[in-house]
Amino acid sequence: MRDSPRLFMDPQAYPPLQPDMVVRLEPDRAHYLGNVLRLSAGARVVVFNARDGEWSAGIEALRRDRGEIRLTRMERAPQATAGPALFFAPLKRDATEMVIRMGTELGVSCFQPVFTERTNTHRLNEARLGAIAREASEQCERLDVPDIRPPCPMADVIAHYPSDMRLFVALERLDAAADPDGIPAARPGDGLLIGPEGGFSAREQEFLRGQPFTRVLSLGPLVLRADTAAAAGLALMGAGLRRRAVSGL
């Protein structure tokens, strides 16, 4: 089943998945299988969500924007991705979409767009970003799709941030070089905050440094694009989470 197409089944739109259950496909899903992938009845697919896990299935019928699949068996039990939350200032369209795609592939549990003093993009197509997160989850073989929350001011995020979780703040032009050992014990639920194009203002940096739960994170001496900084920071945090899992802490 490794090479079979993967389809996310929204648990809010479908009942719990069971063996031999027939599922009617949404029009866009049927169109994708039939017109994009050129599949037909009898082909194998994989469906998944965080509630039901991953299931093998076969196409029963497929025509234009209509189709049905029959579930066979569970291949993987439900498992939520234990990754960090990503807080980021909205960027230009392509860059924001790249952040969502790469963040999903790197295990982000949820995305929270935040408005900062230098944020120059204030309108987001949340439906489009949700579709990108879904497609990335299908491609990278995770079992869930990360949440994308409505944008809010950075001050609101800080005011309501859980005091028992850490928020790693990526700042540019730090003297310390990027060091994976700088976050040896990143925990599920910790967050990463990435600033806008142009970085955080001096006032914002002072404000962030003064919070008891924030940790300054250096990504090296070079100034990175905001979308590159998100990927680099998430890679470091992912390494910390994996070390923590291996050590059993």
UniProtKB/TrEMBL annotation:
Gene Ontology BP term (one): rRNA base methylation
Enzyme Commission no: 2.1.1.193
Function field: Specifically methylates the N3 position of the uracil ring of uridine 1498 (m3U1498) in 16S rRNA. Acts on the fully assembled 30S ribosomal subunit.
Ribosomal RNA small subunit methyltransferase E PUA-like domain span: 26-70
Phylogenetic lineage: Bacteria, Pseudomonadati, Pseudomonadota, Alphaproteobacteria, Acetobacterales
Keyword flag S-adenosyl-L-methionine: yes
Main location: cytoplasm
Organism: Novacetimonas pomaceti
Cited PANTHER family: 16S RRNA (URACIL(1498)-N(3))-METHYLTRANSFERASE, RIBOSOMAL RNA SMALL SUBUNIT METHYLTRANSFERASE E
Protein name: Ribosomal RNA small subunit methyltransferase E
